[in-house]
Each structure stands twice: as C-alpha cells, then as structure tokens.
C-alpha cells in the first residue's frame, strides 16, 4: 500500500462518437475535464497536478501534454504525459495513483483521450511495431488478435459462436450506458453473419473507432472523503509490459494478464477473485478476449471460460457482471479506453452508475490492454484499504 | 518528503549517429552501466520507467523497443513521454508511494534517424501553425530575439556560452562535440535563424542515459555515495507562443520556487554550487539560469562574462559541456542529472567543482521552454 | 457554431521520413539472408532459447546473446489469420490488397515465432501445425522483403 491511501473522487466522460468534427482535441479534453470537476464539485484551482496521455500517431501531435493545456487546465500547473499504447488509459490511472500516494500531490487530474477519426487507426497501430521486422506484414490490432483467437480455438475447440456470446453480452450492456458509442443489441446470428474481418473475427466481434475523452480525479486520504461521500479506493495496481517483437508472444494465453493479476491479488489478499469481486471492467477489444483473458485473470480455470460466459454469470444480474458499460466493443477512444474502464468501476463502487449499476459493489477490477499483449490491472474497493 | 537517493547512473557516449546500435542496444549499455555503478543486479531493481517519444523514435508505443533490454520482464513498469527529468520524477513518486524500494529510469533518443525540423514542427498546432513550416529552431530564434531585446544581451554574450560549454566538453568522455572555440568562431559560423548561429545551436545526437533511484534503506544498502534528492517540481506555461511572454521563463520560476522550498534553498546564488541546465541554444542557458535564480533577470550575461559560470567560477553552469556539446533530446535532462551526480560524488575529473555539495538541474518539455522540471540534488 | 456545414474538418496530411538503425544483430540476419539465403537467430547462453529476429538481449534472463544459430528455412504454423479488412498501409501509403494470409511461423530450431505472409492455396488450407517452407525472392537485397511469404508443404 502507498504512503497515502488514494481514492477516485470524481469522473467525467464525453459522449463517445465515431467522429467529433465539432471539436478539436483540446476542446474534447475540456469536455471530460469539466464533467469530472463538476462530479467532484471541485474547480481547476483545486487540482495540484495533471497526468495526461494518448497515442501520438493517431492525431499526429508531438508533446501533447504541452499542446493540450488549454483543454486540460495545465497552464501554470505540473503536467506530465504517460503513454504505453493501448494500455495508456490504465497506465495513466496507475500513474495518478502513484503521484497521489507519494504525498507529492493531494489532488491529481488524470486525462486520457483520443480522436481516432483523425487518422487511419490500423495504419497508426501498425507503426507501433518494429519498423525493420514487423511492419511489412503486420496489420494492426485486429490481425494480431485474430492470431490469438485462432490459437485458443485450436487448443480448446471453441468456435466463433462462443465468442459471439461475449459480443452479444457487451452490446446489450451498452444499451444502458448513455456515454457508449454503439448502443444496439445484436443476436448471435447477426454477429456470425457480419463480415469476416480476419479469421475468426467478424465485424461485430471487435471494437469500433472512436473519438472520446475521459477524466478521473484522484485524491489522498486526507481529503478524499471530504470531497466525495463514497469515494472509490484504489487497493492496488500491477502491470506487465513484457514483449518486444510480436513473434515473442505466447499467443493463445496471455501471460501478462496472468502474471499481473497474480501479483495484484496476492498483494491485496484476494484469494478467490470469482467470489470476492463484484464487477469487472475488462479492456476487451474483441469477443474472444472475453473468454481467454478472464481465464488468465484467474476468474475461471483455463478452458472453462466459454462455458462460464454461456451460463450468464457475467451478464447483468449474474454472479460477476463483466463490462456493465458495454466495454470496449461499444466504444474505443484508445488513449482513453483504459481510463474509462477505471472510471466505470469507480462509478460502480460509488453507486453512481445509473442504469448500468450493479447492486452492492464492494470490490471491482479494471484492466488495460495494449502494446505487445500487455496488461495493466487495478483493484478498486468501497472500503478504505488497510 | 522522505529521503530519496540517486544510487546509480549509466550513460552511453553521446554521438551524432550510432548507426550500429538500435534503441534496445543503447538501453542495454546504459542500464548495465547504471547497475554496475550501483552494485546491483537487475533483480535488485523493483520497477522501472522508460522515457521516450513516439515522434522522435518514429514509432507508436516507442517504449516497446526497449523493455526487454532495460530489464522490464516480470516487473511493473511504465513510460513517460517527455524529457528524462519528468521520467525521473515519476520514478521518484513510485518510490515515495511506498510501492517500490527502487526505480530504474531510462531515457533514449536517436536524433540521427529522423529529420529534426519535421519532428519539432509536429509540436506546433496542426491547424494554426504547422503549415508555416516553423520548427524548434525558428521558434527559439524568435525567443532569443525577444530575450536579447528585453535584456540587452548581445550575440557576443551568447557566443561566450558556446565557447565555455564546448570547452568544458573537452574533459567529458561522454560528450559529442568538444571544441576549442573563440567568440569570433561562433559569430563567424553560419547564420541558421537570426540571431542564432550554427554554434549557438545544439547538435542532433544519439544517446541513452539510465539512473537508479532508491529509498533511504536501499540506498544505504547498495551505495557508498548516495546523492540525495532535496527537491523536485515541474510546471507548464501556456501553449501558444503568443499567449506567453517569450522573454521570461514564468513556469521555470514557478517550478524552481517549489523545488527550492522543498530543499530549503532561500538564496540560490549562495546555496547552490553548480547547475546543469537545458542549453539547447546558447541564449537558453542564460535565460534558464536567471529563471533558476542563479542571476538576476538580464544579468546572467554579466556573470558569464565575469567567469562565475566557468568551472573555476563561483557557480559553474554546464561544467559537463551541456547540450551544446551533445543533445539526445529525451535523454537530455537525465544526462544533466547524471552529470550533477558525477560532480556531487567528486568524480567529474578535470571538470570537478571542488567541494560541490548542492546542484540544481533543469529539464524541459515543449516549445521554447513551455514546461520545466527542476531538481535540487545534494551529497549530504 | 452548431451547423456542420460551417466546419473545416481536415488539416491536411503530413509525412515524416525515418532512417531506422537495423543494428549489428539485424545486419547479421540480413547479410546471411542476402548472401547465403540462410536464416539466423540468436541463442541465449543461459536459457538456451533461440530468438528470431536475432537481438542482443534475452529479456527473460537479461543476458547478452553472442551466438548466432541457423534456423529454418522450414517451420510450423503456430497461429494465423486471413486478413480481409482494408486499411492504409503505412509502408506504402495506399490500401493493402486483401485478402491475404498472415501467419506466425516457428522456424525449425527457433523458440520464438516469426510473422510473415502465408500463401493462400485452396489445396493446402492454412492450419495450426501445418508445415511451411520459406519462399525467397529471386534478387536478394538484404531486407525483410527478401522473404516473399511462407508456402504450406506436405511432409
């Protein structure tokens, strides 16, 4: 645990859309910041430092921390940029946590954003990979994920129908979330009949391209409960950013999730995550991950994920609802996405999740995914950690 | 603030073009040098922060290239995008949070792989400014002009910074451009963007620097000469150049004020023994020295002329040779910190400032010093 | 400003050229490829793992690798997909033609997998575990394009 215990005391999101030509990046950021400040009943003057991030090549802007200050409130304040690819949003949350826990800052504003409409998303993701070795043949995130799905299918004999069940769940949940980009229920058949993008991934198995921003305010235990009657306490964080080249990855399992989750649960005393957790917001960019990655997280034994999904246990009303927000399949402004997961769990703990509220959330997990099959993970709780 | 120490440092030599090494190779060299310096094995390091920039590296998720060679396997890690001083700040916060006893922080850049003016052009607003073709040099030239106009600083004054720093670099084995220069040489060098001559500008460089920060207990376990963090702070000014008074480093003054308050520095000119500042251009050394309170506003040129900023002077500035002698952009601030550590340990050889106890280091982000990060380091 | 027709929505395109260092390890790979049509990986002195592409550091052991070993040119499909969606290829600036096979191949003698195109051939559908050979281009230049694709073979 940190020197200072840390809690989320306010969150704000834009209404995420495929294309926001009515605002530039700074203005998009400002929408989320304004909402987070309003949620916490604070003003920008109360903020001691800002942690911001996105992925540079989606918008083509260098030194975003400096460029964005009109939107973020960073003028004459400390502002620092973290970026780790798809994990950026969760990396920001972990960064904000440490800044507050250190005692250096009492209240920190954390901002993740992306205007994916401003470039070719797959082209920009492809430049994440090694220019000499990987870039010629790499085809962005979807083909890499397809390779994972294919490997898992071969080992456990699941089909795209099993994966479609995950997509059906998340798209149904998204109907309850006013901030989600895609809010339309689909059937298993509709998923299976949607165009095959990259075998075994259909169009309705994957996330969309989104413009959006998310802001989260974290505060130290000295002030958190004064700002927010039921703050969301951060119990712990862990991450693994393991690989360098795509071909190094152990495709079909996700070592980074397994190792990060094992560390997090060990240090926070979680023995049976399936029983102890009340909600998970999983950075799940495609449906197969909803099966493979919860096994790696230790929710369900390896090879049993599909059965668990079909049982309805992860639906709203089930024993462990996953992605009440509709998750990444409903909305994916990449640099914000991990932070949205964090904010959504905070809303659940605070009891502010509206139509997507899971009753009585005491413990929840948010994750981030990105890079070269990397994982970030945070444990949130209603109770102040020991 | 609890005590935090710098217990290890490693630098690659700064060179114009490390064509035989990729980012991972550079990181491997710097990280191993830092581990050896600290007497640590990678297993003794509890987490790490890499610092890099996706534009300079020509790669989205630039940190992906250096994870393995920096020892990130099975460790918690993160990546700061910006100057290395900001990476070090987050590294320190992760220790102060109680989560980790030590953090390895690295910063790398290979300026040789891209066209610098395009990279810095991308830092300008895409809608209003970029199409003018403005880059870091042209913007800095305008800042230099504004500063000279307001303070009466002359081209000869700027040239003296170049003469001093390239001269200091002669005794720095890591420097790229050690040179014997005269003021006349600088003034006779090609005019790049009025008033900046070629020798007023830092070169394009490749390099990687690594530091190991630790809590007090870890520091005492591994290190005979820990260098202690006395204070650290950062602050950003407005973005658009037209929204700022370019002749004054307002955010640097604010960051310095906070760092000095943490360190108990009330009279910087008396309490600070040496400074390593971000001299991407000659005029910046003078401007930043003033922002750090090492001279009154507009008077840095007089202290320089008086010899105060020389190695033999009362307050050496960039005794290492500074960035004018080698400027691997993102790593630059970490190099400044490492050079201050060498001084405070008494290991700076011919460039040693005798009896140096307290140093101030500054790094920056953005155009014309929009955001500054200030560190006060001491050996007691 | 509510009406969309008042919006200017594009600020134009930007291009930034880079010259990436291949480094000594990569250069060894491409020289062997160009001159001898041989594929090489680097071997960790501690764990014995063979990495392709070759590189200096074994991330798991944090050890410098100095030994190069020949791998392939045959290998086994470890996983694959068939890419059917279009996107702008940052290598060329134009849309990449689809569909194409994209496979991860474990070269004989290697521990990591190597990604490249896989020939789509109706007679030999791609599947995990399928054996492949490496198809080189006729005139070798010492770049990744010297490997054209992997071809499924029967063994």
Describe the protein's architecture and organization.
The complex is a heterotrimer of chains A (386), B (380) and C (155). Chain A has 386 residues and is α/β, with parallel strands linked by helices. Chain A has a single domain (6-121, 207-381), classed as Thiolase/Chalcone synthase (Peroxisomal Thiolase, Chain A, domain 1, 3-Layer(aba) Sandwich). Chain A is 36% helix and 18% strand. Chain A has helices spanning 25-40, 56-59, 64-67, 69-72, 88-101, 121-126, 140-156, 160-174, 188-193, 224-227, 255-268, 273-276, 289-297, 305-310, 334-350, and strands at 6-13, 49-53, 79-81, 107-115, 196-198, 201-202, 211-220, 232-240, 279-281, 363-370, 374-381. In chain A, α5 (88-101) packs across α15 and α11 packs across α13. The relative contact order of chain A is 0.20. The mean pLDDT of chain A is 95. Chain B has a domain at 4-115 and 204-222: Thiolase/Chalcone synthase (Peroxisomal Thiolase, Chain A, domain 1, 3-Layer(aba) Sandwich). Helices cover 35% and strands 19% of the residues of chain B. In chain B, the strands form 2 sheets. Chain B has a 9-stranded mixed β-sheet. In chain B, α4 (84-96) crosses α14 (332-345) and α7 packs across α12. Chain B starts with a strand and ends with a strand. By secondary structure, chain C is mainly beta. Chain C has one domain (21-153). Chain C has a 5-stranded antiparallel β-sheet, with no helix packed on it. In chain C, β7 and β8 (114-118) form a beta hairpin. The mean pLDDT of chain C is 88. At the A-B interface, α2, α3, β3, α5 and β8 of A face α3, β3, α4, β8 and α10 of B.
């Amino acid at each position: 645990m940190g020197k200072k215990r840390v809690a989320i005391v306010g969150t704000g999101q834009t209404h995420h859309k495929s294309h926001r030509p009515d605002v530039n990046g700074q203005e998009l950021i400002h929408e989320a910041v304004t909402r987070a400040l309003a949620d916490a009943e604070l003003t920008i003057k109360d903020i001691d430092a800002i942690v911001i991030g996105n992925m540079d090549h989606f918008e083509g802007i260098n030194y975003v921390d400096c460029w964005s200050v009109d939107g973020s409130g960073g003028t004459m304040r400390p502002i620092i940029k973290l970026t780790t690819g798809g994990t950026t949003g969760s990396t920001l949350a972990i960064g904000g946590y440490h800044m507050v826990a250190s005692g250096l800052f009492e209240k920190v504003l954390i901002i993740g954003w992306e205007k994916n409409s401003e470039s070719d998303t797959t082209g920009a993701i492809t430049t994440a990979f090694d220019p000499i070795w990987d870039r010629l043949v790499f085809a962005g995130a979807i083909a890499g994920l397809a390779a994972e799905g294919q490997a898992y299918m071969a080992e456990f004999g699941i089909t795209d129908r099993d994966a479609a069940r995950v997509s059906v769940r998340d798209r149904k949940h998204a109907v309850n979330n006013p901030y989600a980009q895609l809010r339309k229920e689909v059937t298993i058949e509709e998923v299976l009949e949607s165009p095959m993008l990259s075998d075994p991934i259909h169009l309705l198995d994957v996330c969309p391209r989104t413009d959006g921003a998310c802001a989260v305010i974290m505060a130290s235990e000295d002030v958190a409960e004064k700002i927010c009657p039921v703050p969301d306490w951060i119990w712990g964080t862990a991450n693994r950013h393991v690989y360098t080249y795509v071909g190094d990855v152990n495709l079909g399992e996700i070592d980074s999730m397994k190792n990060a989750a094992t560390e997090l649960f060990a240090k926070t005393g979680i023995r049976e995550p399936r029983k102890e957790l009340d909600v998970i917001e999983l950075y799940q960019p495609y449906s197969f991950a909803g099966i493979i990655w919860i096994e790696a997280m230790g929710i369900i034994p390896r090879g049993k994920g599909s059965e668990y999904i079909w049982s309805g246990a992860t639906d709203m009303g089930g024993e462990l609802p996953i992605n009440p927000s509709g998750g990444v399949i409903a909305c994916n402004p990449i640099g914000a996405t991990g932070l949205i997961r964090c904010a959504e769990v905070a809303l659940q703990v605070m009891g502010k999740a509206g139509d997507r509220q899971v009753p009585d959330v005491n413990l929840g997990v948010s994750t981030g995914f990105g890079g070269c099959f990397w994982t970030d993970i945070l444990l949130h709780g209603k109770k102040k950690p020991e | 603030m609890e005590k935090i120490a710098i217990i290890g440092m490693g630098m690659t030599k700064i060179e114009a073009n490390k064509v035989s090494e990729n980012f991972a190779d550079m990181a491997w060299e710097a990280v191993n040098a830092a581990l050896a310096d600290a007497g640590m094995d990678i297993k003794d390091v509890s987490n790490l922060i890499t610092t890099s920039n996706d534009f300079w590296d020509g790669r989205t998720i630039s940190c992906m290239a250096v994870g393995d060679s920096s020892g990130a396997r099975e460790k918690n890690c993160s990546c700061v995008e910006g100057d290395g001083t900001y990476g070090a700040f987050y590294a320190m916060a992760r220790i102060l949070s109680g989560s980790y006893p030590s953090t390895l922080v690295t910063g790398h850049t290979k300026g040789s792989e891209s066209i610098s003016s395009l990279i810095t052009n991308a830092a300008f607003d895409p809608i209003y400014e970029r199409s003018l073709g403005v880059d870091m040099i042209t913007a800095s030239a305008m800042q230099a002009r504004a500063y000279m106009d307001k303070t009466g600083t002359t081209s000869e004054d700027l040239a003296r910074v170049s003469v001093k720093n390239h001269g200091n670099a002669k005794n720095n084995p890591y420097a790229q451009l050690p040179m014997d220069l005269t003021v006349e040489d600088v003034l006779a060098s090609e005019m790049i963007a009025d008033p900046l001559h070629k020798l007023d500008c830092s070169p394009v460089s490749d390099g990687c620097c690594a530091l190991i920060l630790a809590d007090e207990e870890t520091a005492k376990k591994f290190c005979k000469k820990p260098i202690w963090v006395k204070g650290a702070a950062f602050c950003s000014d407005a973005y658009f150049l037209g929204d700022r008074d370019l002749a004054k480093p307002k955010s640097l003054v604010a960051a310095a004020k906070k760092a000095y308050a943490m360190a108990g520095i009330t009279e910087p000119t008396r309490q600070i023994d040496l400074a390593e500042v971000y001299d991407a251009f000659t005029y910046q050394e003078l401007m930043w020295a003033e922002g750090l309170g090492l001279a009154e506003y507009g008077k840095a040129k007089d202290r320089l002329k008086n010899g105060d900023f020389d190695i033999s002077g009362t307050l050496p500035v960039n005794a290492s040779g500074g960035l004018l002698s080698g400027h691997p952009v993102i790593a630059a601030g970490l190099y400044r910190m490492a050079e201050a550590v060498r001084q405070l340990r008494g290991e700076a050889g011919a460039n040693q400032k005798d009896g140096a106890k307290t140093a101030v280091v500054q790094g920056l982000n953005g155009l014309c010093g929009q955001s500054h990060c200030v560190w006060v380091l001491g050996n007691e | 400003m509510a009406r969309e027709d008042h919006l200017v929505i594009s600020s134009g395109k930007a291009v930034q050229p880079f010259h990436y260092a291949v480094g000594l390890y990569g250069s060894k790979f491409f020289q062997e490829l160009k001159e001898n049509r041989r594929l090489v990986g680097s071997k960790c002195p501690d764990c014995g793992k063979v990495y392709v592409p070759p590189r200096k550091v074994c991330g798991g052991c944090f050890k410098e690798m100095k030994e190069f070993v020949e791998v392939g040119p045959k290998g086994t499909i470890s996983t694959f997909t068939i890419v059917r969606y279009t996107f702008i290829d940052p290598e060329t600036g134009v849309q990449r033609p689809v569909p194409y096979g994209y496979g991860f191949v474990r070269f004989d003698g290697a521990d990591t997998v190597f990604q490249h195109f896989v020939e789509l051939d109706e007679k030999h559908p791609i599947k995990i575990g399928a054996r492949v050979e490496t198809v080189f281009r006729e005139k070798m230049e010492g770049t990744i394009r010297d490997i054209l694709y992997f071809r499924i073979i029967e063994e």
